[in-house]
Amino acid sequence: QSSPGTDNRWRHVRRLLERAGPLGGPEFEPDPELFSAIRSDLVQILVVGAGGLGCEMLKDLALSGFVNLHLIDMDTIDLSNLNRQFLFRPKDIGRPKAVVAAEFVERRVSGCRVTPHFGKLEDKPLEFYKQFMCIVCGLDSVQARRRLNQIVCSLVQFDESDQPIPTSVIPLIDGGTQGFQGHCRVVRAHATPCLECTADLYSSTQQGFPLCTLAHTPRLPEHCIEFARIMQWPQEWPFGEEVPVDGDDPHHVDWIRTEACKRARQFGIREPDFRLTQGVVKHIIPAVASTNAVISAQCVTEVFKAITGCYPLLNNFANFSDIEGVAVNVVPLERNPQCDVCGQPPPKPLTFNSRDSLQTVINQLKSEHGMTRPSLTACVEGRDVTLYMDLSFLRDQLADNLDKSLAELGLLSNTVLNVTDSAQSGMKPVTFVLNLEDGMET
Amino acid sequence: NNNNNNKSNINSHPVGRSRSQLPTPKAKKYDRQLRLWGDHGQQAIEQARVLLIGANAVGTETLKNMVLPGVGSFTIMDHRRVTEEDCGSNFFVELARIGEPRAKVCAELLRELNEDVIGDFLEDRLDVLLQRDPGFFTGFSLVIASGVRHSDLLVLSDLLYDRDVPLIVCQQHGMLATCQLVAREHFVWEAHPDNPLPDLRLENPLPEFVAFCDAQDLSAMDSQRHSHTPWLVILYKFLSKWRQANAGKFPSNYAERQAVRQLIRSGERGESDLHGDEENWRQAQSAVTTALLPSKLPSNVNELFKLADQFWLRRQQLSDSSAPSEDRQAAVPPSNWLLLCRTLAEFYRQRGCLPLCGTLPDMVSDSDRYVALLNIYRRAADADLVEFSRLLRVVCLDIGLSADSVPASQIALFCKNARHLRLVKTASYRELSRPLPQTVARCLEETAEAGPSPFWWYLLFHACDRFHTEFGRFPGDTDDVNFLADAGQLKLKCQQLAQDWLASLATTSAAGPTSAPEDLLHELCRFGRAEVHSVAAWMGGVLSQEGIKLITGQFVPETRTMLYDAVSQTFLPVF
């Protein structure tokens, strides 16, 4: 007989985890304990973004049996979100997305704990990200993706033979949509391409019209709109001196539209309506619930595979489009050996005492690492700091640093040092990681 | 009552227009989707009535993605009660409501996603209602049947098929799900192709266009005007030059097009002037590949002409013969799209071309010449539209319909998209679910060594249905640790079914094995019809957009029987 409590409830998921099957992952071993294991404190999952994709991902994760979910998003809810961000209602407009989404899912799927974080990725220390067994993201900006990618890749640690230590590689599942198209991809740093390896895939949707077209030879309604926004607005400051364009303020948009229409009439061009105007000013990307549902679901299936090992992971990029028929295409993308983020050899450790001076470090770089005139930068308290530059006038500027101890300079264990050698022009920076025998860690 | 056939409100009363041009709250809410299917598409969605049979994970996920964009109304039919199991796969139930009618709970939780949407529910059993009140089903714009058994689907589809109510059928087993659209006839008004070829009429150029181009002397232009001459003018001039030198013929192959390209190249000034280099001349050269393709009637449009002609021929035959006047065919007036296609065929016969689209791609140019070109093409398109409308009136009056049977906005939409129109159709579920013996034989042969394939899974899904009919549950859907015991019976059902399907083939022994690979049998028993939520959500996303395509007549639906395999992340046709 079946056991009481939540056992029946999760029968669907437990079938996949407790029953042996011939088509499972290569090392998968079904086990009645697996289900409780995925609900233990060891399994924490981070969802980045609580918008069109994030809401779907949260729901899908909750109904896959996961109970320790974190959600980070820096936005508040807007009316135009409600056609697809289904965890929000009209009364929630203005509240933080992460908070409202967490409340809804906790209420609907009892037993699921969702911790919301209202803020940016950079607001969290690196330590925050270490706790997650998997990170899934539904972001709408290239910059945020790259930042997240850098965070995940920087967490990777290496063994003596420069191989990545598996437990330090957090799988990153990335989803993106635009209208009726989307993608889902699996990133395992150093095994698959990271997001930076294929940075050119994420082409910018910004339409940059040449200024001379806007100013002298407009042809399209869009040209008239951009002229009004870029050139007329800062000349007339219609809503106050130095008050910038707010694409969400309908009065701002309407002013731009009116000016654009005047210009359009002047040139015989079709006059833009409000929708087109706002679309151009805000670089609006069309969006519907259906595409977001598909991509998020695909991502969460991969999260489930990554954590349980029940099936092999997607290798490694899937395209989706349902404009004409429905097309799904899986492509194994390749790593970029020159990748700025994951193409580097792993940072070499430099072992010192926190009382040692910077000069000591430089001496070692010269004697043991083949450098002649090393220059060093490091990330101290979130800012890039130049420690020393062995270049003409800068040598004197930073000479004081040479006698300072590493502790005085704010350097801790695990600080990454970027080193270039002025004597070798065109050399890419080599990264080292500080290992202070007596020191505090970052 | 298919909304698609008689859309009378295209482009009128758009969702968002108000006197001040500021968007209404509704236009704001739907802004992101209005940019995809327009106000008229939204209107069609808001007039649609959707029936969901089966308030399971796939069903409710599909409906969710139709409620959010504002479908007019929905009805959920499900005779079951909410179980604990439902709470682990279905987002639209709650633990606190176990034991309540599932249709009721799901309807409430779906309705609250969008206050604009009306939703209700029925607890009737499908088979009972199909007998008792078949008329109920034909009142909907779209029916979605999720996890419905085969025998009921046969009756349901027979009912809906001839009434032109489209049906979406889907089944989920664990990490797998199949789906099929069933629609006798579905007209695609706006296909929204990715990269449509521009409609330039270069083979038989517009007189106004010729005059405009002839009035321009490239060699006499200063560098500003030379580098801001639209590529269309440049292309035309050198095309004419080539045609004059080649007895007036139009370039008919790659080599000839390249020859034109070379001529254009020879006209470039080459030096970089103070207005930048001559990008317009480069554009003219690359345009050669697409703008100089000989125009021919697209096959999808040709098909429509044939359909229209056949329909009119039959009408003629019926009215000529002494057939009784109750004959349905003669009595039923043709739908708008058929009237329009008939007119289009007539237009093509008379003019040798389709009505001009009227738009031009953007190109480097000064404002006055680009605008002038746009206006030339727009005026010509308007003239074609007037001519087309005149022909349409004649067609309508000819068969006893009023001259303005088709609203002006619909005529305009039709002409604008003339090149990409198509009729999409499938066989009935009855036919689709009994594939031709040749098809079955081919599929079995193809997959003999391949292992898991969509066809095998599809065959097994049907075998599972037979298993369920006999044993009252699905294979592996048991708490017994010996769930694999079901594999034997499933294998038998599968063999019987394959043999059934191959029955009429003389050489059944030549086909591949009719015995499903052991791995697949095992895997299906392992699933025990589990509703894995992320798989259901994926299918729900796909099916909801297919539903929207059917309701709006925009974008092209997928008509093949498809299988989603979340293990390999593939979505492949079964046959």
TrEMBL record, chain A:
GO biological process, one term: protein neddylation
Known pathway: Protein modification; protein neddylation
Positions of the E2 binding domain: 350-437
Organism annotation: Macrostomum lignano
UniProt keyword list: ATP-binding, Ligase, Nucleotide-binding, Ubl conjugation pathway
Lineage of producing organism: Eukaryota, Metazoa, Spiralia, Lophotrochozoa, Platyhelminthes
Function of the protein: Catalytic subunit of the dimeric E1 enzyme, which activates NEDD8.
Enzyme Commission number, as recorded: 6.2.1.64
Catalytic reaction(s) noted: ATP + [NEDD8 protein] + [E1 NEDD8-activating enzyme]-L-cysteine = AMP + diphosphate + [E1 NEDD8-activating enzyme]-S-[NEDD8 protein]-yl-L-cysteine
MF term (GO), any: ATP binding
Pfam families registered for this protein in UniProt: E2_bind, ThiF
Gene Ontology, cellular component aspect: cytoplasm; nucleus
Stored InterPro entries: E2-binding (IPR014929), ThiF/MoeB/HesA (IPR045886), ThiF_NAD_FAD-bd (IPR000594), Ub_act_enz_dom_a_sf (IPR023318), Ubiquitin-activating_enz (IPR035985), UBQ-activ_enz_E1_Cys_AS (IPR033127)
Keyword DNA damage applies: no
This protein's name: NEDD8-activating enzyme E1 catalytic subunit
Positions annotated as active site in the UniProt record: 212
Keyword hit for ATP-binding: yes
Family affiliation: Belongs to the ubiquitin-activating E1 family. UBA3 subfamily.
Automatic annotation (TrEMBL), chain B:
Keyword Lipoprotein recorded: no
UniProt cross-references to InterPro entries, sorted A to Z: APP-BP1, ThiF/MoeB/HesA, ThiF_NAD_FAD-bd, Ubiquitin-activating_enz
GO BP terms: protein neddylation
Pfam family, one: ThiF
Domain THIF-type NAD/FAD binding fold: 30-570
Start and end residues of each stretch annotated as Disordered: 1-25
Feature: compositional bias, Low complexity: 1-12
Signal peptide: none
GO MF annotation, one: NEDD8 activating enzyme activity
Superkingdom to which the source organism belongs: Eukaryota
GO cellular component: cytoplasm
Keywords for this protein: Ubl conjugation pathway
Family designation: Belongs to the ubiquitin-activating E1 family. ULA1 subfamily.
UniProt-recorded name of the protein: NEDD8-activating enzyme E1 regulatory subunit
Organism encoding this protein: Macrostomum lignano
Lineage start: Eukaryota, Metazoa, Spiralia, Lophotrochozoa, Platyhelminthes
